[in-house]
Amino acid sequence: MIYVGIDIAKLNHFASALSSDGEILLQPFSFSNSYDGFCKLQSKLEPFGTDNLVIALESTAHYGNNLVEYLVLHGFNVCILNPIQTSSFRKNNIRKTKTDKLDTFLIAKTLMANPTRFVTKRDIDILHLRNLGRFRQNLIKKRTRAKIQFTSYVDQAFPELQYFFKSGLHIHTCYALLKEAPTPEAIASMHLTHLTHLLGTASHGRFTRNMAVNLRILAQKSVGSNDSSISIQITQTIAQIELLDSQVDTVESQMKAIMRSLDSVIMTVPGIDYVNGGMILGEIGDISRFPNPAKLLAFAGLDPAVYQSGNFQARRTRMSKRGSRVLRYALMNAAHNVVKNNQTFKTYYDKKMADGRQHYNALGHCAGKLVRILYKMLTENMVFQLN
User: Fold this and answer.
1) What three-state secondary structure class fits 81?
2) Can you list the residues of the chain whose pLDDT is less than 70?
3) What tens digit of pLDDT does each residue of 150-164 get?
4) Does an H or E element contain 136, and which?
5) For residues 28 and 42, what is the distance between their CA atoms, to the nearest angstrom?
6) Contact criterion met (CB below 8 Å) for 303 and 364
């Protein structure tokens, strides 16, 4: 067997190859983080035969993702090592020497001593899910901030509008109205027929002519400001919110497509949809890296914090909230939906509430139960079987 170590960097990578006896078959060489560079690496490795090669590289943020995907799709056996493993190997050296070239040998030797599983096409799909899930969360945070800003602008321009749209300002009808007439003065001056048509079309007939009349009266009596700067902020913020809505829909559509291709057993859990399931799978990654459900629970930050001092031992503590915030969010959201769709989880939730727990505390226990079930399902490829 031939072991190839690759040291990853942003612009240029280094690679070398060792035989199982430690003989240097390829002296360290550099190749760029580009298509030409990848082809150069491939041409250097192909004479050895892909079946006889095992390639290893460290997990280094996003810099090695493109190379891993390229190598896997071209039939190479690729392993990703934890930097802690190579760091411990480096400490065994007498001399304190660290260069990119020497690191390639170190990575190859670490692989010899600690064989690990190969990266598969499924792993790459799960990596894409993780990236999409985290990007979706960022978009949602931006949209939330934009909605808060929008509300503050409307409070200044037309504070009475919240009494007209009783279901809230963040609906399509309100956005359609304010995009055309962002001030009370503009709404009050609109022709009643046009205002009625605008509200009726945007609300699919829920807003009638009488409601349009009431809105005009409300606008005429408004104490809001007609400041043009606020008007601009209202219309521009609506555009931002609608753009973010569109972007979230696009990301979710892509996540659904990947989840359909994976056909994971996680989708047999009632209440888990493609988006939540995709976020959970993406954050968990390779389930085999968790030796037991408790490790997965801790990775999600759903495990209880421990507080002990002297003879005192806290009997009740909050969840630690360490680890993956995205996974914790997805699991809590999934647990909420599973409680509504599965009697076993509903009974468990009701029991925790009867014990005096608050809603989110009881939901946290349900999320912990869900983690243990998902661990069993994913490790043994079992479908959900609780009634």
Assistant:
1) strand
2) 88-98, 305-320
3) 999 999 999 999 999
4) helix 121-157
5) 14
6) no
